[in-house]
Every structure is written in structure tokens, then in C-alpha cells.
Amino acid sequence: MASNRAHHVTGWAAGVIAAAIVHKAGAAGPWQIWTALSFIAAVAGGTAPDWLEVAWWSRKRRLWITHRTLTHWGLGWIGLAVYTYRHLGQHPLAALGLGFACGGIMHLLADWPNPLGVPWLLGRHSLNWWNSGRCDIAVVALAWLAAFAVFDHAWLHDVHNDRVVRMFRAMQSSS
């Protein structure tokens, strides 16, 4: 599991991704309101798999569900993202759902390298790369690289993505 701080920072990266997707889909709404709200929903979704486990209605605020079970189920978050993406432009709240799902998926991706893993389909799967809280900088860097690539595609028409691809092709041809 990534640290709480890493989940917050990667949630912001998920917000950039969600806002770019909503904008690119033409579902931004007047004054880009749905773009902004999808960003906010993604920031909240970046920590949601953890806070959804807490019994907020009880005084002790204990977990009502075992950690990394239903709230960390990858298929559920991906299903929400697909469903809401398909409804962008048809239902205004779809942008909020997509943002929330993007944040949740980013949370799972940040937890995946941990030995405890994430239940993507049925059982847990782990990349088993490092223990909790270690290498948060790598998780954050990868999240923000993904956010920049999606942002570049949606708003800058792949100007920077194309340059990176050309650079790698040039490196391959020279070796």
C-alpha cells in the first residue's frame, strides 16, 4: 500500500486525467464545470477505497469491511469508469462518476506493487515489488507522467507525446 500522502498526490494526478477525459469527450459543460467537478471527484476517489471501509456511522469509526476487499476490487472501479464514460454528455453526473472512478483506479494502481496486492478480478494479485510506504516517489512520478501524457493528448494535441515517441524511435534506430 502506498502511504496516505502518496494516495492524495496520485489522486490529484487522477484528477488531471479525469478532467482531460471529460474535456476530450466533449462533456465539459458550460464554463468547463463538469471538467472541474470531475477533477474534484477524482481527488476524492484517490483515497476512497480506504475511507469507504470506515464505519462513519459508529462512534469508534472501525472498519466495517476487511481492508483491501470490496472497496479495493478492481473490476468494480473499472466497471464504474466504463459505465460513466459511456454516459458522458448524456447525463451530467457521469463526469463526477468518471472522476471518482479514475481516482479509485489510481489508488489501486498505487497499492498493486505491495505484497498484499489488490483484488482485480477474483483473488488478490500483487506485483510484489516493495513493501508499504516504500518507493512512494516512483508511484507518484508514474502517476504524474500518465497525467501529463493524457493532458497532452486532450489539450495540447499530442505535441509533447509525439516528441517523446520520435526521440525513442531515434534512439532505437541509432543502436
TrEMBL record:
**A Pfam family of this chain:** YdjM
The record, for InterPro entries, names:
YdjM-like (IPR007404)
Q: Which residues cross the membrane?
A: 37-58, 93-110, 137-156
Lyase keyword on record = no
Q: Which UniProt keywords apply?
A: Hydrolase, Membrane, Transmembrane, Transmembrane helix
The GO molecular function terms of this record are: hydrolase activity
Q: What name does UniProt use for this protein?
A: LexA-binding, inner membrane-associated putative hydrolase
